[in-house]
Every structure is written in C-alpha cells, then in structure tokens.
Amino acid sequence: MLDYSNISLTSIHPAWLPEHISAAMLRLDQLHPEISGNKWFKLKHNIQAALADHCGGILTFGGAYSNHIAATAVACKEAGIACTGIIRGEEHHASGNHTLQTANANGMGLIFVNREDYRNGTALNTYSSLFPDYHLVPEGGHNPLGARGCEEILSILPTTSYTHILCAVGTGTTLAGLINSATLQQQVIGIPVLKGAQYLDSEVNDLLKPGIRPVWTLLHDFHEGGYARKSAALIDFINSFYIQTGIPTDIIYTGKLVKAFQQLALQGYFPDNSKVLLIHTGGLQGNLSLPPGVLTF
After folding, report:
1. In this predicted structure, what is the pLDDT of residue 92?
2. Of 162, 169, 196, 206, which alpha carbon lies 20 to 30 A from 178's?
3. In which domain, by residue range, is 87 found?
C-alpha cells in the first residue's frame, strides 16, 4: 500500500481563469516518484487479486513509451510478484528508451511483438496461453479491478463540493472510476487524448456500475492532433501554466487536460460559481521524450 498523505488538493489561479469560476487540482502525481498518478489505483486491486490467487505473476500490455508499463514494473517489484510486459513494436526501435529501461531495471520481462499482431489480438491470445498462471492486466489497466481502484480517488481528500470533475482519458478506466464514485450533483468530464476515440463511450460504459449515476460526457475536440502529438502551442501552454501555478504537466495527458479546461472556461462552458476539479493523473515521464530545455521544469 502506498502512502496517500503526499497527495494534495491545490487551488489554481492562472491568469486566464474567469472570475466566476474557481478551480483546483488533485495532485495524484505526488503519490510516488514512479508509480505516479492514476497508475497505482488501476494496479492496486489487480496485484492484490494476483497475490490472493497465488498467480505466478502479472502479464500486461503496452506501448514502448507506456506509463502503465513502467509503473507496473515498479509496483510488482514492491509487491514481490513477477511481471512480464508484452510491448507493441519492434525491439530495435524502442529498447533504449527511458520507459523500457525503467521497466527492465525493476524486473519486468519484456517481449516485443509486431504492431499488427498486437492490434488484431494475436499477441493477447498467444501470450495469455503461454502464461496461464499469470494474472492478466489489459493495456492501461482497463478492467473492472482497475476501475474499482479509481473509485478511491475522489475520497482521498474532500471533493464533494466541486461541481465539475475533469480528467484526461486514455483507456477510460480512471474516468469510469470517477463516474462510479462522484455524487449525483457533480458532472464528470473526460478529455480523450486520442484522435477519433469515439469508441471510448462504450469502453467507459462497460465499466460503470448499474443504477443512477452522475451526468458525464466525453469531449473529443481537445486531443491536440492525437496521442503523443505535440505542438509549439501546447509546449508554450505547459510552460506558462507551470510558471503561473508551479504545477508540472505533461505533453500526452495533463497538459492537454488543462489546455482543454482553459478553452472551455473561456468559451463559457461552465456556469457562474462553478467549482472545477482537475485530476492530475501523473505521467510526467512522457516529457522525457523532449530535448532538454524545451520545458522550464
């Protein structure tokens, strides 16, 4: 178990924030230097299930730059359980990057598969059968146990007074957990970082509990060109936000989240007296792909 006392709820007052809106950020990035942000919450119950079932280890999947892969390796090491990562893409293209070096250094076995086999499910079927005694964790921790862990996020600190909850979306697991645990008076808004990710609506729905739930939506127009795509404007925004708030964000998830919040706020999306909570889901290691000096932190 990790110590949640490092997590803070930080009010933010960037110059562009309209006076009729207040905002704060739940700093999940402060949880752990390597199992950062939402990653622990998606892994927690999966690791507990693997240990309870006396599984041989954890088998999971991800890209060569996946925050999930690196975090899983560290979490499994701390839990004392083996893990293997099935990595999308050829080894000679990716094996030297920081994410995979971190995963390997923390004991994760790495198996590289070509993109077609990864995409069409061949790799999933093949390696699930080759590791029959391993607990399977889908890419990004996208399963009911992952969503269950994310239901804890809003209870770490007092959050019931917020009218809107905003979160970047990759697989939709964290968003589902937030929807399952938000009050009926709150609105939960997901900002997908992938282009053309309308399928996420059903992915999120599949992880929701039955019964009455708060209003939620996915806003698909803030992906900044697609997953891991970055522009000079996004870099400038991330630097400016850090200068104004002291909060680092990343080019893949949280930078896009905050930029989307800015645009929505300036467009009048939020009614007067709205209290907006942004979930900082970590992932700052994504910034390591940038040349030194591009970011001011």
Report:
1. 65
2. 196
3. 56-132
Report how far apart, in Å, the C-alpha atoms of 17 and of each of 22, 24, 248, 263 are: 8, 11, 18, 10
Angle (deg, nearest 10), helices 254-266 and 232-245 = 80
Token reading at 17: 């924030």
Distances (CA, A) of 80 to 55, 107, 167, 186, 278: 12, 10, 31, 39, 33
Asked which of 132, 154, 178 is the last residue of a domain, the reply is: 132
Confidence of residue 30 (pLDDT cuts 50, 70, 90): very high
CB 259 within 8 A of CB 296: no
The rounded mean pLDDT for the chain is 96
CA atoms 242, 216, 273, 224: torsion sign: positive
Going by C-beta distance under 8 Å and a sequence separation of 6 or more, which residues neighbour residue 181? 150, 151, 152, 153, 154, 155
CA dist 74 and 83 (Å) reads: 10
C-alpha distance across the termini of the chain, in Å: 29
The tally of domains found in the chain comes to 2
Q: What is the per-residue DSSP string for 56-116?
A: SEEEEEEETT-HHHHHHHHHHHHHT--EEEEEES-HHHHTTSHHHHHHHHTT-EEEEE-HH
Closest-CA residue to 224 (of 234, 238, 215): 234
Among candidate residues 79, 103, 132, the one where a domain is terminated: 132
Name beta bridge partners: 277.
24, 165
Number of H helices, E strands in the chain: 11, 10
- C-alpha 205/C-alpha 202 separation (Å) is 5
